[in-house]
Amino acid sequence: MFEDDRATALAADEFADGMVRPDYGGYCFSGVPAAAADRLGVDLGDGLPEDAFAASHTDPAHVVVLFVDALGYRQFERVAGDVPFLRAFQESGRVTPLTSTYPSETAACVTTMATATDPVEHGLLGWHGYDPESDAVYETLPYAASDGGEISVSPEDLFDAEPVYGRLADAGVNPHVVGPDYGSGYDDAGQSVASAHHYERTTEFALALRDTLRAADAPSYTYAYYPLVDSAAHEYGPGSDHADAQAAAVGDALERALGSLDDAVAAETLVCLVADHGQVDVRDSTASLAETGVSEHVETDRSGTPLALGGPRNLHLRVTDEAAARESLTDLDAVVLGRDEALDAGLWGRGEPGAAFERNAGDLLVIPRDGMLLPSSDDADWGLAGMHGGLDPREAVVPFGVAWASALA
């Protein structure tokens, strides 16, 4: 079943006009890893309310956290009727709306999933981070400096929390990660002791998950990450046929792959499907720092790259004059906050900021209501159709679906 009333209520609890307040400690994406581990009897901290699971969702031998990047709640609702794999969560399991974290960005959410902590605690606040020792802006998930040079931040220092996989292993649970091969760097930090299983194509993803479950010793916890719905929505738009077709493609591949599991394994495997965010269409509302006039107040790194961190709907600015920078942004349709204002509001969640947060947070936080704010019109994201990172309900409300694998095949 769908819980549209809850989705509406989550969207109506606003941080600012038209912006969803993340429901940390309640129906929030950040509770998913602990909720999934709790099914196996492992305590990773605060999970989700018990009604996110059906009464029958107990005592699995295997748990899968199926992370479909950018499959927001409204897209899930829209396509589920035509995708048997997704429809089965509604008909045979449970689908609960959650809020994303802030930011509703993959880099932050993947790290929350890996550590079971809120963004304030792990400190990875978006796609672009800052390495003060090297004075370089860098991309956090590719783990690469924007100017192509070296960075000093080591993989183990990219974020401040410990991955969950060591705790799972210590509790006797076998941890696995199914995901693309992003190379050394973030993967070294995020995967920890988990057994890694890589793939390149949609069919390979589904078969890698099946084969992991076939070989896994019980009890097991498998985190399976799929990025291509997000890629299609960025390029063609979140309401596009391309994005919906990609969601259908992975659903069909998973239905076929899980259908070839041994019946006993399928009956003991609980699948928890979740997304980190949806997307909003940004084609008609993209601006650059220069257009606002704020660029003259923004610091730059060793190569002249503006210290515009985070992402285009979650922009952290390091500035030389905060008052003047705020004044430059008054005509922008956005919420502009100082770092302490955002911390006091609990925007990044619970916990205390550490070294990674201090590196990556700006003096000013800019959250556009519509569109993107980019460093320049030469930015690689200029011209994208879809984007996320902010608090619009379309990007900030996501599905959490739970069903036995035997019902999904």
UniProtKB/TrEMBL annotation:
One of its GO terms (molecular function) is hydrolase activity. InterPro entries: Alkaline_phosphatase_core_sf, Phosphodiest/P_Trfase. Pfam families: Phosphodiest (PF01663). PANTHER family: BIS(5'-ADENOSYL)-TRIPHOSPHATASE, ECTONUCLEOTIDE PYROPHOSPHATASE/PHOSPHODIESTERASE. This is Type I phosphodiesterase / nucleotide pyrophosphatase. It comes from Halobacterium jilantaiense.
